[in-house]
Each structure stands twice: as C-alpha cells, then as structure tokens.
Amino acid sequence: MRKIRLVEVRSELAAGTRGASMGIDALKIASIKRHSNFFMRFEPVSVKDENQLLFGEPQFKYAKYGEGVHTMLNRVCDTIAELRKEHLFPIILAGDHSTAAGTICGIKQADPNKRLGVVWIDAHADFHSPYTTPSGNMHGMPLAMVTAMDNEACEVNDVEEETEALWERIKAIGGRGPKISPKDIVFIGVRDTEAPEDHIIEEYGIRNFKTEEVHERGVEAIAKETMEVLKDCDQIYISFDVDSLDTSISTGTGTPVANGLSKEEAFELNKELIKDKRVCCWEIVEVNPTLDTENRMAESAFDILEATTDSLIKNF
Q1: What pLDDT was estimated at residue 316?
Q2: Which helix or strand (DSSP H or E) is residue 285 part of?
Q3: In the chain, where are the structural domains located?
Q4: Of 35, 39, 73, 82, which sees the most CB atoms within 10 A?
Q5: Confidence at residue 250, expressed as pLDDT on a 0 to 100 scale
Q6: Which residues of the chain have pLDDT under 70?
Q7: What H or E segment, with its residue span, contains residue 270?
C-alpha cells in the first residue's frame, strides 16, 4: 500500500470570501458525525499559513495579498516536493485554490523530468493572471501561475510594476518556466469562465467535460476519456474544488455556480480517477463552513474524501 500523508493548508488569502481556512476543521467535524476514524489513520502535515495578513488591506489591486500568496506557494511547494521525494502520496486539504499552484510546483520539483498532467474538477478555469483578473483574487490564477501564462493578448488591467515583479517571482517558484503544458490539463465541470480564459481554452484545445456531458455519458466514460487525453503524461495530479458540485449541495463554498455535478457523480468520479496508477497526488479545496448551515457542504466533501482515499488504498 502506498504511504499516504494528509497535508493541511489553511490559507485563505486568495479567496474573495472569508472562511475557507475553517474548511479542514469542518471536514473533521463531519468525520466525527460519521463516526469515522479517517483522521486517525494518516499522519498529518500542517503548512503554516499567513492569514493574519487579512487583518490589513491588500497591497496589490490585481494580485490581492500577493506577497502572502507567494510565501504560501513556496511553503506548499517545499512540503509537497519533500513528500514526493520520499515516495509518499499527499492528500491535500486546502482552503483557497491558489495553493494548488504550490502543489504542482512541488510535484514538478521532486520529479523535474516527468511530464505532469492535471485533472481540474471545478466550476472555474482559474486561468486568470493579474493582466486579466476581474477581481484581483488569486484563487482564480493557479493554472496561469504554473503554465507561466500572462495572456497579455487579452489584457484588461493596467498592472503596476510591483505587481508585475511579484507575478514573475510567483511563476518562478519551483524552478523557472512552465511546470505543465496547458495541453496537459483536463477540465471537468468548468462552467463559469470569462473571455480571457475562453481564449486560452480555445487556443490550446483544453478538453472540458461539462456537467451536461457527465450527466449524459456517465462518470466511468468521462474518467476513462480523461486519462486517455493525458496518456502521454508520466504523473497525474487531481484537484477537486467543491464548487464543481451543484448549488443544491455547494452552498458552503465561496463561489458556488448552478448546474454542477451531483454528489454521487463527484463521489464516483474521484473514486474512478484515482485508480490510475500515475496519480501521485489528490486534493480537495474551498470548503467554507461559514456560508453553510449544519455543516452540509463539509459532510458531502468528507464523504467524497473518504471514499476517494479508500479507492486509492484498494487499488494499490
């Protein structure tokens, strides 16, 4: 059996709504309600956060709390790289989705010569840069960070020099240059994008299995085709944002979007995807119990977390 490490990342600097840092503890409360011993089974690693910066105003308009985000990405990168070098399988419980960039950098740093594919299960493409962001919230930027994509062809913001310098430093975390190719990304459930992101998706032919397609074709077919798209990749990382779920379930997340996956689809999808022996890391993000009642989102998310982990163990 692969040795699993739980990695707890409580950062919420890059989100637009406060509360995602509490998502990990909400998952733990859900496990208690389920009478599960999940959090006793695996040794946890906790990455120090910089959430105290939220008590002040953001320094950069188009990269809010960017200095703190840069610090967090470096910490996550170092943590994941160390775990992967020890041949451990990180299961990451994170607050906002920006730290996924640190995860990808860490995987790549541990195995720089291995081609890395990404399965991004999310309502959003998260392909903005400071030049295109409509909000300045950096949880909408992790895939641009790791593909080193400015997308200046779609520039809408007049970005200050200090922000540009920070962005260059962020793109260089874990080594200079792109960590992954946009062609090695598969989207599942992405349905809320802006024109600059649509431009990238179209330009690179990024496959997006929209919710309707998942409903129509079924999870098994989608999982199989996802891995077929990534057939030339040596390693695969799966990032599951709970806002990929339909709003009937996903009230407890910062940016819910209608017409999402059902809980059953997400449950089976993650169980199926993680069976591929190239998968080296799995992550769940953006549970925000402050937006929820009775911890419903965390309970659904915990069920998916536990089932996915059990599927991983069973298949190795």
Answers
A1: 81
A2: strand 279-285
A3: 4-314
A4: 73
A5: 86
A6: 1
A7: helix 263-273
d(CA 140, CA 52): 21
Distance between CA atoms of residues 300 and 242, nearest Å: 9
Query: Which H/E stretch holds residue 116?
Result: strand 116-121
The Cα 112–Cα 174 span in angstroms is 10
**DSSP annotation string for 188-238:** ES-----HHHHHHHHHHT-EEE-HHHHHHH-HHHHHHHHHHHTTT-SEEEE
DSSP string, 142-156: HHHHHHT---GGG--
Report the Cα 40 to chain-centroid distance in Å.
Answer: 24
277: burial class by Cβ within 10 Å (0-12, 13-18, 19+)? exposed
> Given the structure tokens 């998706």, which residue do they identify?
201
Nearest C-alpha neighbor of 181 from the set 225, 217, 216, 229: 229
Q: Find residue 281's DSSP bridge partners.
A: 237
pLDDT digits (tens, 9 = 90+) for 80-137: 999 999 999 999 999 999 999 999 999 999 999 999 999 999 999 999 999 999 999 9
Instruction: Report pLDDT for 123.
Output: 98
pLDDT digits (tens, 9 = 90+) for 277-309: 999 999 999 999 999 999 999 999 999 999 999
Give the span between the Cα atoms of 30 and 107, in whole angstroms: 29
Which two structure tokens, joined as six digits, stand for 267?
């449950």
φ/ψ of residue 208, rounded to 5: -125, 110
**Helix residue spans in 86-137 (DSSP H):** 100-110
User: What angle do helix axes 66-85 and 161-171 make, rounded to 10 degrees?
Assistant: 10
At which residue do the structure tokens 């059953």 appear? 264
Closest CA to 131 of 117, 114, 148, 116: 148
Residue 272 has phi, psi (to 5 degrees) of -75, -45
Model pTM score: 0.98
> Position 215: which residue type?
H
Neighbours of 55 (CB within 10 A): 6
